[in-house]
Specification:
49% of the residues lie in helices and 16% in strands. It has a five-stranded mixed sheet with strand order 1-2-5-4-3. The chain has a two-stranded antiparallel sheet with strand order 6-7. It is α+β, with helices and mostly antiparallel strands. The two termini are 20 Å apart. The chain has helices spanning 9-21, 30-37, 57-62, 72-81, 105-112, 132-145, 151-164, 170-179, 183-195; strands at residues 26-28, 45-50, 68-70, 84-89, 94-100, 115-117, 127-129. The chain is globular. The chain has two domains: 6-130, Beta Polymerase, domain 2 (2-Layer Sandwich), CATH 3.30.460.40; 133-195, no CATH class.
Length: 196
Amino acid sequence: MAAPSAENIPILQEVIAVFRRLDIPYALGGSWASTVHGRPRFTQDADFTVEPFPGKEGQFAAAFGPDYYLSVPAMEDALRNRTSFNLINTRIGFKFDIFVRKDRPFDQAIMQRRLAITLPDQSNQPIMFVSAEDIILLKLEWYRMGGEASERQWQDVSEVVQVQGNRLDWPYLARWAADLNVQDLLARLRTETHRS
């Protein structure tokens, strides 16, 4: 398991502590998940998927002090429409993209398959991460939606496949790749990583 940049872990843990205190199920994805399942890279943001938390908006907003920027209307809109909102630590310029779980079967599966992982040199509670298979699928979906132009996204998924190897659940990947219309990208990924 690769370790993400240690300097930002305390900020990450601050936000996760709020999720835990308010009993909001979450999964850390994006480059943090691809680092844990693949190879490390530096990032100044973090992507969370969270279950909708209607009725807790006020508590969530109040949990963050002057070091954080949060638009309450943007959060409320994201909860209503199952989209995303930002939380920014203005002291160090670290951004959290918080995605409210979409109401589709794949996103339900992501939350059901979360993994509790304790990062190296971290004695506190483990962090709930998106699984290796699901971060591959999410990044392939983002890669396609971005016009297949992001070399960074492609490199991330390639490194997860290279590191995880035979531990990956390929039938699961194939099933959801078809559902997300990225089966051609998954086939290309498997071919390229098999060659390397």
